[in-house]
Specification:
This protein is mainly alpha-helical and about 240 residues long. It has helices at about 15-25, 30-35, 40, 45-55, 60-65, 90-105, 110-125, 140-160, 165-190, 195-240. About 70% of the residues lie in helices and about 0% in strands. The longest helix has about 50 residues, at about 195-240.
Length: about 240
């Protein structure tokens, strides 16, 4: 029986991936299956991206997440949900991001940088102690989106008219990959050590503040002593002169 370090699952991205991949049986065969259909799926990516955003815009609760200015976007933002259309420059910016993401998972390479990329995609959608921005999409919407994307991918694969055996392998591979990405999201939403991270962040901030105030107060104490010495000296001198 293999031992799994629970805390390491939340601190080491590669270790977490290796565990989840081993549990699901995601391996080289799956990677080859995905990359084997990458070129056939590439032309369909723009339509897939459009379908995802049409779905996001069907509900006000998901559409609202696209109102805040996206990091890296320098254009004007919409002031209301009514102003925010699928043709808005910021939505085009986000569509471009999703398109690049889909291309990345198709072509790989599935190395350490790829794993960090999957983790980054999850992190930028959540409010974590390590992140400066406050974008935080509730997990219910992320989970629903991942399910929708997987269904769309299944539809694309079924329309490739692959041999039955190859089709089954490709569908299984994409299913595992989507769940692996979903797990990276789950790591930030359901981290039993999240409170520990927040506590550590608070303690470090408090320690830094105390160190800063301590230095100031120390300087203030020295000044007070000097003023006291000078005042005392003047008092003695004035007393002597009066006599």
């Amino acid at each position: 029986m293999q031992h799994i370090d629970e805390k390491k699952l939340y601190s080491d991205d590669k270790y977490r991936f290796e565990y989840v991949a081993a549990y699901m049986g995601f391996g080289e065969e799956d990677v080859k299956a995905i990359q084997g259909v990458a070129e056939k799926m590439r032309p369909i990516i723009p339509a897939l991206v459009d379908a995802v955003y049409v779905k996001q815009f069907e509900f006000d609760i998901t559409k609202r997440y696209f109102l805040p200015k996206n990091e890296g976007f320098s254009g004007e933002i919409a002031n209301s949900l009514d102003e925010l259309t699928l043709e808005h420059p910021q939505i085009q910016f986000r569509k471009n991001f999703l398109g690049k993401y889909l291309l990345r998972i198709l072509k790989g390479p599935y190395d350490d940088r790829f794993l960090k990329y999957l983790d980054w995609v999850a992190k930028i959608h959540t409010d974590t102690p390590e992140k400066k921005s406050k974008i935080n999409v509730d997990y219910i919407h992320v989970n629903a989106l991942m399910g929708y994307v997987e269904s769309a991918v299944i539809g694309v694969v079924l329309n490739l008219n692959l041999p039955r055996e190859e089709e089954a392998v490709v569908l299984s591979a994409f299913n595992k990959l989507m769940w692996i990405q979903n797990d990276y999201y789950a790591k930030y939403y359901m981290n039993p050590y999240f409170n520990d991270l927040m506590k550590k962040k608070f303690e470090e901030a408090e320690k830094s503040e105390k160190a800063s105030n301590g230095g100031f107060l120390a300087d203030l104490n020295i000044v007070s002593v000097l003023i006291g010495v000078i005042a005392g000296g003047l008092g003695v001198w004035m007393s002597c002169n009066s006599h």
